[in-house]
Amino acid sequence: MLQIPIIDFSNFASDDETIKQIYQACTEVGFMYLKNFDISQDLIEQVFNTSKHFFNQPLEIKQKSAWSDEFSNQGYVGIERERLNPNKPGDLKEAFNITTQTQQPYIVEFFQACTNLANQILEAFARALELPVDFFANNHNQNHHTLRLLHYPPIQTPLLPEQTRAGEHSDYGSITLLFQHDEISGLEIQTASGDWIKAPAIPGTVVVNTGDLMQRWTNNKFCSTKHRVVIPENTNQSRYSIAFFCHPNDDTQITCLPSCINESPMYPPISAKEYLLTRLQSTY
Fold it and tell me: Keyword DNA repair, does the record have it (predicted)?
C-alpha cells in the first residue's frame, strides 16, 4: 500500500537527499509530511486556540463576517455553504478565510511564518526541477495566499446520501500546508489506483500537498492529488485543522515548464487568478 512519506526538512537547503525525497513525493503521491520545519508548535497552538474561540461564537456573530464573493475570498463560510465536490451535498464544515489584510493576534505572525515555509518548499521544488532556485518564489512574491481556519462540528442531523465533512477535491493553487490537530483526523487521499488511504495527524509535522496550478506548471509531473475528509466513527467529536493555500501572483501565466515538456504541453496557458476564480465559482 502506498504510504505518505515523512521527510525531515531541517537541512533542505544543503541536503540533496531531501530534495530527492521531495521530488519523489510530488511525482508519486502528491502529499508528504514535513518534520523539523521552522514554525514553532507554540504559535501553531495559539492559532488553533484562536480558531476554536471564533467557531465557538453564536452563528449570528460569525455571520457578521460572512464570505461574500470569490473575488475577495475571505470571511466566514457556514456549514453546508460549500461543496468541494459539486456533485455531492454541502460539506459538513465551517471555515474562516483570511488574507494578508487581516490583523489579529497571532494570525499575522502565523501567516508570515507559513509564507516563509512555503517559499522554502518552493525553493526545494525549483531545485528538484532544475530551475533557478528563486523561480517559484519570485512568482509568489505578492503573497496572494489564503489562510483557512476549519472546524468540522459534531454531526447532529441525519446525513444526506454521500454527504461528508469535505467532498473529494484537489486544491487549486500551487501548494497547501495543512496543520492537523489532536488525534481526530478523517483526512484521506486517493492513490493513482483509485484507493483511499488515511492521512492521520502526526504530532510535530505539517502536511504538504501540490495543487492544480503546480500540476499544470509541471505538465503532470507533480500530481495534484484528490483528497477528502470523511465522517469519523465518533460523530460527537469536533475536528479542527488549519490550511494555508499558497497561490501564485494573480498575473502569473501558468505555462508548461521547459524541463517538463515530454512531447507537448497538456494544458493551455492560464493566469493564476483566472484559474482560481473559475474553481471558486464552481465550489460555492
Answer: no
Q: Which grid coordinates are listed for 164? A: 461528508
Query: Are 266 and 220 within 8 A, CB to CB?
Result: yes
Contacts of 191 (CB under 8 A, 6+ apart): 2, 29, 197
pLDDT per position as a tens digit, 147-160: 999 999 998 888 88
pTM above 0.90, yes or no: yes
In the numeric block, the cell 493551455 is attached to 268
Domains of the chain: 6-283 (2.60.120.330)
Note the pLDDT tens digit of each residue in 54-89: 999 999 999 888 877 666 667 899 888 888 888 888
